Amino acid sequence: MFEALADRLQGIVRNLTGQGRLTPDNVRDSLREVRRALLEADVNLGVARDFVARVEARAVGEEVLKSLTPGQQVVAVVRDELVSLLGRAPVTLAGSPHLPTVVLLAGLQGSGKTTFAGKLAVWLKAREKRALLASVDVYRPAAIAQLERLAHQAAAGFWRAADGTPPVAIAEQAREEARRRGFDFLVLDTAGRLQVDEPMMAELDQVKRAVRAHQVLLVVDGMTGQEALRIGQTFAERVGVDGLVLTKMDGDARGGAALSLRQVTGRPILFLGVGEKLDGLEAFDPERLAGRILGMGDVIGLVERARAAVDDEEAVRLAVKMRRAEFTLEDFLDQLRQMKKMGPLEDLVKMLPGVPKGALEQAKPDAERFRKYEAILLSMTKKERRLPRLIDGSRRRRIAAGSGTSVSEVNRLLKDFDQAKTLMKRLRHGPRGLAGLRGRMR
């Protein structure tokens, strides 16, 4: 997400903080680079120009340039203005006191509305809210079938009207069904078109009025660049939009739409869709995203991912085993699986503050190594995972063949596991044990 823009801005940030003395001229030079980086990332020209003007007005002030750390002060200004551009405070999905809360999804065909509906159901379920999904797209039967499949995967409700039912009637029937069955939310997936047209807008407006939609969310493909702004403006003016959803944000190196849409439409961004899996939905937080773009990390996001991936009881059980040095390869496998739930390793490393680019590059081979480790562990029997001492030469060759790896890779896994166990044993003995470990490592 925002890889090209993040690389450019982080380079500019390093240059600013590395200079002992700043002048109005070298600040302006840096800000010209910032504007160029924004434009290359597909940020709207007017938005980029206004952003740089606001930063410059604050950054060349006397209190910044004469401070003890002028470079860091300018970076703080850039971050603050970036947060302001993105919306300052996070906005969440608003519920209605009169159930069900009706959420209407709008957008062009291919923007990711149907997939987002499934992701939203999962997101709501994690917050102990029940969602009923329904589609008013009578033009593409495949879209209805896809939504039904996603509803099943998300363990959400699904409503299918009789064939030939008009869109407005489908929406009204779905709302009545949601009310009758006590659902908290009704998520209505609407028809999309390859381009904005009047019949599409008129139908959307009719559905919105018929069900008195509480929230109209415009779903926009984050890869559409400047076109996303025209789409956003048109929907906001013609139908009325309460919030924005940007999808496919992991597939675009530029993603400038996210930095322009809120400013151009005046509507908040609520969610970012990343990946095809149903758990690939992030609540949009301006401060955290600004930190990630500028290389300042997102520790809160990392903690949230860990909470979602790690079972509390399992974590306690594992902690007890680690203290007793009873950690086995079976536990090692469980840990790898929990890490996988948190997402790609390189994405997790990006969320740590101050991580150099070299560490990000190193995370890629590490991720491949963990993938091989999982394959190796799965090629072992349960008894071998519980009692690693049983794994002799012939077993290692069998495990390597079964996992599509080499004996040396099996040996490396076992070595890493032994080192982890040794560390755990030393930790049991407190500072004395650690001192002994340091002595052995010299």
Give your account of this protein's structure.
- The chain is an alpha/beta fold.
- The protein folds into 3 domains: 3-86, SRP54, nucleotide-binding domain (Four Helix Bundle (Hemerythrin (Met), subunit A), Up-down Bundle); 101-296, P-loop containing nucleotide triphosphate hydrolases (Rossmann fold); 304-441, Signal recognition particle, SRP54 subunit, M-domain (434 Repressor (Amino-terminal Domain), Orthogonal Bundle).
- The protein is 60% helix and 9% strand.
- The chain has helices at residues 3-17, 24-40, 45-59, 62-65, 70-86, 113-126, 141-153, 167-180, 198-211, 227-238, 257-265, 286-293, 299-309, 312-323, 329-341, 345-350, 357-379, 382-386, 393-403, 407-428, 430-441, and strands at residues 101-106, 131-135, 157-159, 185-189, 215-221, 243-247, 269-273, 281-283.
- The protein has an 8-stranded mixed β-sheet with strand order 3-2-4-1-5-6-7-8, sandwiched between helices.
- Helix 10 links the parallel strand 5 and strand 6 (243-247).
- The two termini are 41 Å apart.
- 37% of the residues are buried.
